[in-house]
Amino acid sequence: MHEMVKGSNVALAALSDNAGSLIAGLSWVSPTGEGDADVSVLLLDADGKVRSDADFCFYNNPVAADGSVQLLGKTPTDSGDEDRIGFDLTAVPAAVDRIVVAASRYEGAGFGELEDLKVTLSDASGESLVVFAVEDPGTVSAIIFGELYRRGDEWKFRAVGQGYDTGLVGLATDFGVDIDDDGGDDRARADEPAGAAAGSGAQAVQTAPAVRTAQPAPAVGAPAVEQDPRFTPGGLVPAPRSPAAGPEAERPGNAGIPDQPDQPDQPDQPDQPDQPDQPDQPGQPGQAGRPGRAARPRTAKKKVTVPRAARKSLADNDSWKQARLFPVSALKSDRDREMRATSVLLSVMAQVPEFGRRLTAAFGAPAGRMETFTEVSLPHGDTPRRPDGIIRVERAGKLWTALVETKTNGNGLKPEQVQAYADIAARRGYEAVITLSNDVALEGSPLVDVKTDGRRKHKVALRHLSWAEVAHVAQMLIRHEGVGDRTHAWLLQELLHYLRHENSGCHGFQNMGAAWVPVRNGIDDETLCQGDPRALEVVESWERLIRQICLSLGGELGQKVLPVQRARRGADPRTRRARLADQLCLDGRLQAELRIEGAPGILGVTADLRTGRLRTSVEIPAPEQGYPLTWAKRLVRHLAEAPADLHVETLVEGETGGPRGTLERLRPEPADMLPKQSDTRITGFRLSLFKSMGSSRGNAESGFIRSVDDAVHRFHGTVVVHLDRLTPRQTPAEDRVTA
């Protein structure tokens, strides 16, 4: 990998033969585990200015109009997560001379509060090309990490590292984007019932500043351009990021606003004709320049989601089984399950563009027409090989091809089989080999070791998808983000039902491995020693389980749920797991932390293998103002519907712990939560639930997996949700960004 310093540049063609398609990764480390930033990309002409609204890519406009740039969202890594951006340099219009990659913070936060800021570039095969670390960013709230630019017929990358004290507003203004801080467009959403524009669920909707660019007047006789639903008629406005807005969505942070009753589901309305532009409304007194959430423009086409509440069945009784597009009852063998699962998945990918694109974008596939195939015979020596499937995408006459190998139930991938497919792909000029199984890949620990021939110029990317990831993407689309039409939503619903059926074999990670029982026995009889490789296997299985739980919970909430890794970015993940394995041998505990977008604290999970108990907990900070007794009463009031056996512990400064007790005991006497010494400073409260792990019935390891999954979902659903408005939080980035 080529390490760069500030101001240096490098020709991409000199580093890789596959530099036409790139993945940029922007990453940073937050010491608190909660700091973050937003990524944006600007496409500039020879004058260094954006040509139109479509040249500014950010969270509400994640794909450039020509498909050359796509924000891929956050991807979990060993030390947190990484924002990734896909570039198809072959599709960049000739009028674009430079592509700027930047990130910004909000509410006065600076990049100096984050650590290990860096940007990496990888080619289409996944090989890392360059890395640039931004040193000492200071207090700036926006940074240009780097830029891609043309020199003749080739593309080069420059390490920039330039900061802006004026934030994203100043950065965008420099590149020709005009910032309108007059309060934005506060017209009501066309697809919401009356009154919904003023409140969504429990939160009021505010208006947002608009981002505008100068638009050339259309030529006489030129066809009318259809309004992009991401933009208001008057300019570019960051649209609302509610839990229905996708994996990057955050809950509004308007503390103190009383709950509003949920609006009833409304029937689908026919598309309304475009409305004429309305003048911007003046901002409310005292709100000038205050960012908020913008109303959805009237021209926005409503996306289809599946209602959570199922319609009343017309069946006479429960024995009547609803007809399904993808039946699973006839599946008898693992081979049948693999063939059916592959065919079902690939056919839905080809028919639902949003779904197919979401699964392949992170693999370097372009945005284009997709076709999928199954049981294709490919020559390989004396014995032809038959991969389970093939994905092919066509864009501008160019083809991107990936071979697919599928496993179901507990069947593992066979290294020699995957190696053969990688060799075939390299010889035939295919771009990727995608493996699908119930296992979850970990950073630094590939599921299959594949050797590459260094003499070959064409390189093949080896990618892995778990069935849990596939189900997560389907659930996010049909429950939260929405798809293009009702048929697509129905297809994804049928796919999700198939994947969750007990006979499909696509249930996700369900096996703690062969080392699980010996390690538990070794902990019980205190014979497990540090350095035992079986402890490392259990730690890796635990990490896979936590990543799968994050996908499951995130799909239900429509929000980002990511594992928190307490390690410096760039540290060897295998070294970190070895340290955790030694700790497991000492105290017999498996621990993890989950960061849930919008939650007031980090959700902790501890499995004590000595006692056989699971603990789920969250720590919430004490308010900055008010009296301790008021805090205690408010906490008890918000937890009115929480389980009576919830443990509440008061955290005090300079001591290991303060008063504690169950919620059942503290409800009549909240003052019991306060320290006896009146001068003791309360720093926060820790809430915990305990339960036995495993199950008395069935397989011990699957019982453990189910118990951990149930414990996390129960704790969030009965405790964390009640804390949503308890502590004031910063307004989400999506609600505050003004450009």
Task: Give a nutshell description of this structure.
The chain is built from 13 helices and 28 strands.
Structure write-up:
With 739 residues, the chain is of the alpha+beta class. It is 22% helix and 24% strand. It has 13 helices and 28 strands. A seven-stranded antiparallel β-sheet has the order 22-23-24-25-28-26-27. The chain has a six-stranded mixed β-sheet with strand order 1-10-9-3-7-6, with no helix packed on it. A hairpin with a 7-residue loop joins β26 (647-652) and β27. α5 (467-481) runs antiparallel to α6 (486-500). The protein is globular and about 75 Å long.
Write the SSE topology.
Blueprint: E1 2-4, E2 9-11, E3 21-29, E4 38-44, E5 56-57, E6 69-77, E7 80-88, E8 98-104, E9 115-122, E10 128-133, E11 142-151, E12 154-164, H1 167-174, E13 178-180, E14 210-212, E15 231-232, E16 235-236, H2 334-351, H3 353-361, E17 369-374, E18 389-395, E19 398-406, H4 415-428, E20 432-437, E21 461-466, H5 467-481, H6 486-500, H7 516-524, H8 533-557, E22 561-563, H9 573-587, E23 589-596, E24 603-608, E25 613-621, H10 628-638, E26 647-652, E27 660-662, H11 663-666, E28 682-692, H12 700-718, H13 733-736
Parallel strand pairs: 1-10, 19-20, 20-21
Antiparallel strand pairs: 2-12, 3-7, 3-9, 4-5, 4-8, 6-7, 8-11, 9-10, 11-12, 13-14, 15-16, 17-18, 18-19, 22-23, 23-24, 24-25, 25-28, 26-27, 26-28
